[in-house]
Amino acid sequence: MTATTCTTLCGVALLCALALGAAPAGANIYRCVDPQGVVNFADRPCPRSVSRQLYLEHSIVESVPLDIDERRRLQAINRRLATMQDRARVDALRKRNEQRAKQRAAVARCDAARRAQGELRDRKRRGYPLRHARRIAAEERTLRSDIDAYCGA
Fold first, then answer.
1. Burial per residue of 59-77, b for 16 or more beta-carbon CB atoms within 10 angstroms, e otherwise
2. Which of the two residues, 100 and 12, has the higher pLDDT score?
3. CA distance linking residue 48 with residue 44, whole number of Å
4. What is the pTM of this model?
5. Which positions ≥6 away from 88 have C-beta within 8 Å?
């Protein structure tokens, strides 16, 4: 869902709302933004939200009752808008869960690298054959880079 699509659908919804009960020429319309960021239009200031007064010079739409086809079209637009909002919520939830999973994986990798580093230190204290020195030094470098990458230290 793009911002342009949302804005277009909100504009269509506003026009349809004006068609249901159009404001007279020279009427004051308030654009209200609630704490969740949802934009609403009303004929008086909205409580508990940020409102901005808009002045309509001329009535755009005459007050005409909607026929069945127009009502169905308006209902379809409202359903599409609700579906888009639901998809946006699901996408945001999915993204948040992916971030949390990445954080948990990084913590697990950090813990594993620190445990392996402790085991490597124990092996070095106990002693090891000289022919294993290069392999142990390479393991130590790998573990240090893993700790730097996953532990943030």
1. eeeeeeeeeeeeeeebeee
2. 100
3. 13
4. 0.44
5. 1
